[in-house]
Amino acid sequence: MAYCDKCGVQVADDVRFCPACGFKLMEAREDSDNAKDTTTSCDVESNKAMAVLSYLSILVLIPLLGAKNSPFARFHTNQGLILCIATILYSVACTIINSIVLAISWRLYFITTLLSLVTIVFGVLAIIGIINAVNGRMKELPVIGRFRILK
């Protein structure tokens, strides 16, 4: 039998969270791609809605201002903020490229169509982030997940 480092309650050896206070007892990962999990189950359950809002474009400001003390919400807010910034930067670049291409010739319109299809990737990344948040996982998004704005 082991003891909780936070509250001292005796717990079974295979338990991940303390049943009394919710403190994480083991550093177990669900898979190798997960981010370092430093949250409690109580934090995860109470901040899932904030984590989901993080991936809905400008609504990332709600958890950014409203869930400052939650490591779970903060992780997903960082991921959503990076996704929002990447989407805005891509939109600006796409607008500039589209203007240049259409100024050259209207026959190159297929290039603007191809560029606009890439925006589907941002929607897929948002869906992946929402699924991770709903499932209570702190898993980084592919490609852009390794960047950190919020500490």
Describe this entry's structure for a reader:
The chain has 6 helices and 2 strands. It has helices at residues 41-46, 48-53, 61-66, 71-104, 109-117, 119-134, and strands at 2-3, 10-11. Strands 1-2 form a two-stranded antiparallel sheet. A hairpin with a 6-residue loop joins strand 1 (2-3) and strand 2 (10-11). Helix 4 (71-104) runs antiparallel to helix 5. It is elongated and about 75 Å long. The two termini are 35 Å apart. The model is unreliable at 27-37 (pLDDT under 50).
List keywords for this structure.
151 residues; mainly alpha; two-stranded antiparallel sheet; 51% helix; 3% strand
Give a brief rundown of this model.
The protein is mainly alpha-helical and 151 residues long. Helix content is 51%, strand content 3%. The model is unreliable at 27-37 (pLDDT under 50).
